[in-house]
Structures are given as structure tokens and as C-alpha cells.
Specification:
GO molecular function, one term: DNA binding
Strand content: under 5%
InterPro entries: Hc1
Number of domains: 1
Radius of gyration: 15 Å
Number of helices: 2
Structural class: mainly alpha
Family: Belongs to the histone H1/H5 family. HCT subfamily.
Pfam family, one: Hc1
Function: Might have a role analogous to that of eukaryotic histone proteins.
Helix content: over 70%
Number of strands: 0
Order of helices and strands: HH
């Protein structure tokens, strides 16, 4: 379940940058959002691979 916590923490850490970008038009915050979303994508792929491997191994 720690992987889920990692996803939650990452999403929550991006919240202020989302607000700064969308509400205030801060371009640097947009860059941070894109970087954070790339990290989220990578983490999601790692989790997906873990789940698939565990499913295939019969655990």
C-alpha cells in the first residue's frame, strides 16, 4: 500500500502549482506541473508493472 501513498503524496504536492498555473497564470508553476505529471506517469507505470508481475506469478 506504500505505492498508493506515494501517488497520493505526489498528487498533493502538485496541488499548489496547479492553482498557481491555472488561477494566477504562473508559467514556472506550469513547468513544475508538467514535471510532476511526468513523475506520476513513471510511478504509475512502475506500479502497473508490479501489479502485472504479481498477477502473472500467482501471488
Amino acid at each position: 500500500m506504500s505505492r498508493f501513498a506515494q501517488v497520493k503524496d505526489l498528487v498533493l504536492s502538485l496541488e499548489s502549482d496547479f492553482e498557481k498555473f491555472y488561477d494566477k497564470g504562473n508559467q514556472a508553476a506550469g513547468t513544475r506541473v508538467r514535471g510532476g505529471l511526468q513523475q506520476l506517469k513513471t510511478l504509475a507505470q512502475e506500479i502497473r508493472t508490479e501489479v502485472q508481475n504479481q498477477k502473472n506469478s500467482g501471488k
